[in-house]
């Protein structure tokens, strides 16, 4: 049995007993490829002799399109059906979403502060942070 599978798929031990043992290396290679190229990871949430529930997530890609929840779900179902053909596969996709703080610019923050009637002088006075640092 290939230990890489255990590392690359969270809680794979819940389902490994139903996989064709000779195919585990292929499974590990596919999981590795998806993690390396598309930052996609899997975690088995529930497993029994008839069903698997798999969470599939995608991290931020430096280039290329992020997958939608449906695309992640379809990808996970196709992958797990290949190696667990006698199971019904359910997925819980979590597509990448920008963190709101990454979307804010200095200009947006300044506009919001002005909209609320909050000046940099007031922030400096209440927090003790020098005004020069607030501009950075």
Report on this structure.
The protein has 136 residues and is α/β, with parallel strands linked by helices. The chain has 7 helices and 4 strands. The chain has helices at residues 3-8, 24-38, 69-83, 100-103, 106-115, 120-127, 131-135; strands at residues 9-10, 40-47, 51-58, 88-94. It has a 4-stranded mixed beta sheet with strand order 1-2-3-4. Helix content is 46%, strand content 18%. Helix 3 links the parallel strand 3 (51-58) and strand 4 (88-94). The model is unreliable at 1-7 (pLDDT under 50). The radius of gyration is 23 Å and the shape is elongated.
Topology:
Layout: H1 3-8, E1 9-10, H2 24-38, E2 40-47, E3 51-58, H3 69-83, E4 88-94, H4 100-103, H5 106-115, H6 120-127, H7 131-135
Parallel strand pairs: 1-2, 3-4
Antiparallel strand pairs: 2-3
Task: Provide a compact summary of the structure.
46% of the residues lie in helices and 18% in strands. With 136 residues, the protein is an alpha/beta fold. Strands 1-2-3-4 form a four-stranded mixed sheet.
Descriptors:
136 residues, disordered N terminus, four-stranded mixed sheet, 4 strands, elongated, 46% helix, alpha/beta
